[in-house]
Amino acid sequence: MNKETKKVKVLAIDDDPDIITAVQLTLESAGYQVVSASSGQEGLEKIKAEHPDLIILDVMLETHTEGFQLALKLHSPDPASELKEFKNTPILMLTAIHSTTPMRYEPDIDYLPVELFVDKPINPDDLIKKVAWILGRKNA
What we know:
Largest sheet: 5 strands, parallel
Order of helices and strands: EHEHEHEEH
CATH topology: Rossmann fold
């Protein structure tokens, strides 16, 4: 019996089913295992149950800032955080927020603790490259 290689697990959290489908098809074609959630609350449940290697997170879910709040909660420096085991799980923020507001966001260790901030729509090849880059940094 051959020992099976563990597939890298990606959790995509987005309230747009078309985005979820696009991310799943793109990343699964590149050999990743993809699970999904359509809200921040469902995302938290999946994070605890699935222990993803990477999270792709939308900003605007049930509220305009739910994705930001979830990223802050996941990467909280509080040693008593109920999510402390996920503190180092990388997050790629994939969002259309820049098309709805003149404000510009980028990763910031204190205010937006994510590895990359990417605008929707994203080219499938670029998504695969960005996911590989983040995971490469995590494993370096």
